[in-house]
Amino acid sequence: MSDNKKTLTITDAEWEVMRVAWATQETTSKEVTDILNEKTEWKSTTVKTLLSRLVDKGMLGTTRNGNKFTYFPLVEERKSIEALSKELLTKVCSKKVGNVLESIIDDSLLSFDDIDQLERLLKEKRKSAVKEVPCNCIKGQCQCHLVS
């Protein structure tokens, strides 16, 4: 299974565990529980279940150190984020992607560096922009075909 497919099959709870794994690069179930206890009230058994599922899904690898298991990511965070954003954008009419991006930017706290990077990206993207984005929906999924 590709990294993109793996990322799309994980739950929100598993995503939280992966964020810890990406941040630490190597972790134990106790460390994950301790870190996530600031945000959740998950018991160690819940975290162990989530870690086990992520191993089964090929998102995490594991090594045994005595009676402890160490977990490490098998997929890159950046690739997982890219897969997640692509999946989100496939759920809306291609004519509305700009609105989705606008909403994400409007609702996000951004640094000056983030804004500079977005401005550079948009300037580069302008070179390949089209006058109008074609609709990718089938009839009945949007109202683009009604607009003339």
Write the SSE topology:
Layout: H1 3-8, H2 12-24, H3 29-36, H4 44-56, E1 60-65, E2 68-73, H5 77-89, H6 97-106, H7 112-126
Antiparallel strand pairs: 1-2
Helix pairs in contact: 2-4, 3-4
Fold and architecture overview:
The protein contains 7 helices and 2 strands. The protein folds into 2 domains: 3-73, Winged helix-like DNA-binding domain superfamily/Winged helix DNA-binding domain (Arc Repressor Mutant, subunit A, Orthogonal Bundle); 92-126, no CATH class. It is 53% helix and 8% strand. By secondary structure, the chain is mainly alpha-helical. The protein has a two-stranded antiparallel sheet. The chain has helices at residues 3-8, 12-24, 29-36, 44-56, 77-89, 97-106, 112-126; strands at 60-65, 68-73. A hairpin with a 2-residue loop joins strand 1 (60-65) and strand 2. Helix 2 crosses helix 4 and helix 3 (29-36) crosses helix 4 (44-56). The model has no long low-confidence stretch (mean pLDDT 90).
Describe the structure concisely for a colleague.
One of its GO terms (biological process) is negative regulation of DNA-templated transcription. Keywords: DNA-binding, Transcription, Transcription regulation. The chain has helices at 3-8, 12-24, 29-36, 44-56, 77-89, 97-106, 112-126, and strands spanning 60-65, 68-73.
Q: Domains counted in the coordinates: how many? A: 2
Helix tally equals 7
Largest β sheet strand count, sense and barrel closure:
2 strands, antiparallel
Number of strands: 2
Return the CATH topology of the largest domain.
Answer: Arc Repressor Mutant, subunit A
* Cα-to-Cα separation, first versus last residue: 43 Å
For the CA atoms, what is the radius of gyration?
20 Å
Q: Which spans have pLDDT < 50 for at least 5 consecutive residues?
A: none
- The H-level CATH homologous superfamily of the largest domain, spelled out, is Winged helix-like DNA-binding domain superfamily/Winged helix DNA-binding domain
Structural class: mainly alpha
**Element string (H = helix, E = strand):** HHHHEEHHH
Mean pLDDT, rounded to whole units? 90
Strand adjacency order, main sheet:
1-2
Rough outline: elongated
**Can you give the helix content as a percent range?**
40-55%
CATH architecture annotation of the largest domain: Orthogonal Bundle
